[in-house]
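Re: that backbone. Tokens:
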């Protein structure tokens, strides 16, 4: 790739890759540092778009709007210009990486996930030409070439960063998780060029990353990889200092495998859930907003037959779409009841992560909110039998889907909404466990 000042070969090669007439810039007299920046910007554009081999120095000079001597005052050869281009791209690349990570400081699992969200968006742009380092590696077969060595260093640095975050997130095998994520990243680069912009394979990367991250932090494995990833959720939740100290901790109870419920059993499930709602949630005024929607018949009781996380998420997507499409006057809120799935509280917590991811993927953040209820609900710092846990205990695992605008109206109408949690604790301490059990008898 070395190119001398008098290389005719480079000049002839440049003839086919000169900038379009509309983009040509007349050469001007510029200072050294200014000329260098013009040349680097031009090389950045042309090398990335058309390839390092295809673009000669004449094309770079013409695009930069400087004379050829300005180039050779700054760079002794094309080799040196290419290395400067790679250094510039390296800085840009890790700028993207760290910008993604900075969105979730101190939360390594979410940092890893965020990078794939941002990468998928960037790789879906029409002018995206993939990874510049992959492109350069393809152009130079000699692995000892300085450009190829630079590519190796770039990739090794990224892998080290991924391993660092995987370790901080508590992965069982941080190196394996980092390698899997690195492979997925390379797949995004390739798919962005072999499929159309915004194609399915590229857009699937965030979900694939979520599955890899969850599997890498799992506490138990299954054939499908969907069971319990408590380490992941514990790290993710405990790091979120913005949330109130009502985060669920570990309480594991494995339920026996279940068969889908007979259709007639749905009525019994709904009856038990409705009894809990009327006697506890409304009867004890645990949620002062619940009575109105109950009286108006605006609550949908959706019983899921799912026995796996995959099935739960499929039902959740259907219920989210149903709620959003419905007239709020007829359907204000949904209780997705899970009598056959997520009986283990850790599994339920894992599902909450993916439920929140689904809100984001469906672009329902700020529109729908998901509240959580479970027979074994346990707040952080509470013992399993503490009565305060019962504010979020229900006969079955439940995902409560609420409209954000309805919540806002209810809060505005209730002057001391911030006191609800403390008041509920006082109410439950007053009635005790015996009083609760008496209420729950049907």
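Recovered sequence:
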């Amino acid at each position: 790739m070395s190119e001398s000042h008098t290389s005719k070969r480079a000049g002839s090669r440049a003839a086919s890759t000169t900038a379009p007439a509309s983009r040509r810039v007349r050469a001007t007299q510029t200072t050294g540092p200014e000329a260098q920046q013009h040349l680097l910007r031009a090389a950045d554009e042309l090398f990335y778009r058309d390839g390092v081999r295809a673009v000669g120095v004449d094309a770079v000079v013409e695009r930069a709007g400087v004379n050829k001597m300005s180039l050779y005052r700054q760079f002794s050869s094309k080799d040196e210009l290419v290395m400067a281009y790679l250094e510039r791209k390296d800085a840009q690349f890790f700028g993207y990486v760290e910008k993604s990570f900075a969105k979730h400081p101190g939360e390594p699992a979410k940092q890893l996930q965020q990078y794939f969200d941002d990468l998928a968006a960037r790789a879906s742009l029409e002018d995206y030409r993939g990874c510049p380092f992959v492109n350069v590696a393809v152009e130079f077969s000699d692995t000892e070439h300085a450009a190829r060595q630079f590519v190796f260093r770039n990739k090794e640095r990224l892998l080290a960063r991924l391993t660092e975050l995987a370790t901080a997130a508590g992965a069982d095998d941080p190196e394996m998780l980092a390698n899997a994520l690195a492979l997925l990243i390379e797949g995004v680069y390739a798919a962005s060029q072999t499929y159309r912009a915004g194609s399915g394979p590229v857009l699937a990367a965030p979900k694939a990353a979520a599955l890899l991250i969850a599997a890498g932090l799992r506490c138990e494995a299954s054939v499908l990889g969907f069971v319990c990833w408590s380490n992941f959720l514990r790290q993710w939740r405990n790091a979120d200092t913005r949330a109130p100290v009502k985060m669920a901790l570990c309480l594991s109870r494995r339920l026996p495998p279940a068969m889908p419920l007979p259709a007639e059993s749905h009525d019994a499930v709904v009856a038990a859930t409705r009894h809990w709602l009327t006697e506890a949630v409304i009867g004890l005024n645990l949620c002062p907003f619940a009575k109105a929607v109950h009286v108006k018949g605006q609550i949908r009781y959706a019983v899921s037959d799912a026995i796996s996380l995959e099935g739960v998420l499929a039902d959740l997507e259907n219920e989210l779409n149903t709620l959003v499409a419905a007239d709020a006057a007829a359907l204000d809120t949904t209780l997705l009841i899970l009598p056959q799935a997520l009986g283990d509280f850790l599994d339920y917590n894992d599902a909450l992560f993916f439920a929140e991811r689904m809100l984001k993927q469906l672009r329902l953040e700020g529109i729908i909110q998901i509240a959580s209820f479970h027979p074994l609900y346990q707040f952080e710092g509470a013992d399993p039998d503490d009565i305060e846990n019962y504010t979020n205990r229900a006969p079955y695992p439940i995902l409560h889907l609420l409209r954000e605008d309805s919540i806002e109206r209810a809060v505005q109408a209730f002057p001391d909404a911030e006191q609800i949690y403390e008041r509920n604790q006082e109410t439950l301490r007053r009635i005790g466990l015996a009083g609760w059990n008496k209420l729950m008898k049907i």
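Strands lie at 299-303, 333-337, 368-373, 398-403. The chain is about 55% helix and 5% strand.
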